[in-house]
Specification:
The protein has about 475 residues and is α+β, with helices and mostly antiparallel strands. Helices cover about 45% and strands about 15% of the residues. The strands form 4 sheets. The chain has a 5-stranded antiparallel beta sheet with strand order 8-9-10-12-11, sandwiched between helices. Helix 2 crosses helix 7 and helix 9 crosses helix 14. The relative contact order is 0.15. The N terminus and C terminus are likely disordered.
Length: about 475
């Protein structure tokens, strides 16, 4: 799921970096946007996390120790001109520079969380993630996300203030990477305006995540083009980009919340790979054009050919009245989509990155609803349908997703495939609920193909 999905992928992405989004695995990440693992040009592996925030409170005062204000300003001026040349975006304005302590980073992120979402919504997003097994039942999503950002964020760009913020703890060996990536956001802001890309797309979290892949992937590709010298992105093979993305998927197993970590890192790795492919085929002007005609799915941002062809998802529509009526005491509290990227971050929890990628490829569209009680349970019931491009691709996905659900909620889910469609339901912990879902879930969904370049209309439901 884009999951909240990326839907809700932890809404964090939207705040930092204009940008970083993800899906169920995403309502919470989408609320915040935390950029993560940045690949290096020479090694091709994930580098240090470098999120880029956007609108929130003003940066705090310069630190008394570590990186100094004067040095940060001088370095930024030097790098901005070089990155502008590599990215083919002329400098048309100024970017301020500020340095920030770790506690200030945390406060900044916390303020950003509530720029577009209420505390109640973020709590719901956390429970949606828990329903899908992305987070433990009863998790404190705000604390988890802020902990990750406080330790992982090295730099960020704030569009409201047109300010680049650098952590005082950034080392000399990290400075070029941090400034190179974040100043690319400044150039994006000059030409395309990043504030407009931070507003949530309620009911279409996958499209929100796709924006993050564009903005973060573009910034990372610009940095890589600069450090790669005269040949630019042509000096980095597709195999290196793929290895970087696979490392982001596989190495996340080493952290406490691997699915959330993957959702934060992939925009840098896979996003940059897709941008690089577009540049090799059509030049940087084709990337510029994407800001006018934004990608609508993470499937497009994971597969360059599908992006350039503007492959449209199938429209999955929901008529949940009969299902809700069969579940007395429950009400519909959220409707959204997941998307290929969020599904990939979950499948990589139980399979190697190549197997997970193969199983997620062929996604054709999805929609889900969350049904909750009052007072709220630890996690709502989620019922969703995923359409695939073919029955064979649905058949490849279904057993891997079953393995994932067996791991995160054994005995508490339903999964069923009919030809090229896969129905799923989570948190089925009593016989009555399971019986109602099995009787009415399929009838709640309809799937319709769309013309290329269109976006499925969202039918969001407010919590």
């Amino acid at each position: 799921m884009s999951t909240a999905t990326s839907t809700a992928a932890f809404g964090a992405a939207a705040m930092f970096g204009a940008a970083c989004t993800a899906g169920l695995v995403v309502p919470l990440a989408l609320a915040l946007c935390a950029c993560a693992g940045v690949p290096t040009a020479d090694a091709g592996g994930p580098g240090q996390p470098v999120p880029a925030p956007t609108e929130t409170t003003a940066p705090g005062p310069a630190a008394e120790v570590g990186l100094g204000q004067a040095r940060a300003e001088r370095l930024t001026r030097e790098i901005m001109e070089a990155v502008a040349t590599a990215r083919a975006l002329p400098i048309t304005g100024e970017v301020k520079v500020a340095v920030m302590h770790r506690p200030e980073i945390r406060k900044y992120a916390q303020d950003a969380m509530y720029e577009h979402h209420t505390r109640e919504q973020l709590q719901l997003f956390t429970r949606l993630e828990a329903s899908m097994g992305v987070l433990p039942l009863g998790a404190d999503g705000e604390r988890i996300l802020l902990d990750m950002l406080e330790t992982g964020v090295m730099g960020l760009y704030e569009p409201k203030l047109r300010t680049l913020v650098i952590g005082t703890y950034v080392t000399d060996t990290q400075l070029d990477m941090v400034v190179g990536h974040e100043i690319a956001h400044g150039l994006q802001d000059m030409h395309f305006g990043l504030q407009r890309l931070q507003k949530p797309i309620k009911g279409d979290s996958d499209a929100e995540s796709a924006r993050t892949y564009l903005v973060e992937g573009d910034a990372q590709a610009a940095y890589l083009a600069w450090v790669s010298g005269e040949r630019g992105l042509a000096s980095i093979s597709e195999a290196v980009f793929l290895a970087t993305g696979n490392q982001a998927l596989d190495l996340a197993d080493l952290v406490d919340y691997p699915i959330l970590a993957r959702s934060m890192q992939l925009p840098y790795a896979d996003g940059a790979a897709t941008i690089a492919a577009v540049v090799r085929e059509r030049g940087w002007s084709a990337v510029d054009a994407l800001y006018k005609d934004l990608p609508t799915t993470t499937e497009q941002m994971l597969h360059p050919a599908k992006l350039l062809a503007r492959e449209a998802p199938q429209l999955v529509a929901i008529r949940p009245e009969a299902l809700v009526a069969a579940l007395p005491g429950r009400r519909l509290v959220w409707e959204d989509n997941i998307g290929e990227a969020s599904l990939l971050t979950m499948l990589a929890d139980v399979e190697s990155s190549p197997t997970a990628r193969a199983a997620a490829t062929g996604w054709g569209g999805d929609r889900y609803i969350a049904l909750d009680r009052s007072p709220a349970e630890l996690a709502p019931v989620i019922v969703g349908l995923i359409a695939w491009d073919s029955a064979a691709e649905a058949a490849e996905f279904e057993p891997v997703f079953r393995t994932y659900l067996d791991k995160v909620m054994p005995g508490a889910y339903h999964l069923e495939r009919r030809n090229d469609q896969v129905l799923f339901a989570t948190q089925l912990r009593d016989a009555q609920t399971r019986k109602a879902v099995l009787a009415h879930a399929w009838g709640a969904f309809t799937v319709t193909a769309q013309p290329a370049g269109t976006r499925a209309p969202a039918k969001p439901t407010a919590p």
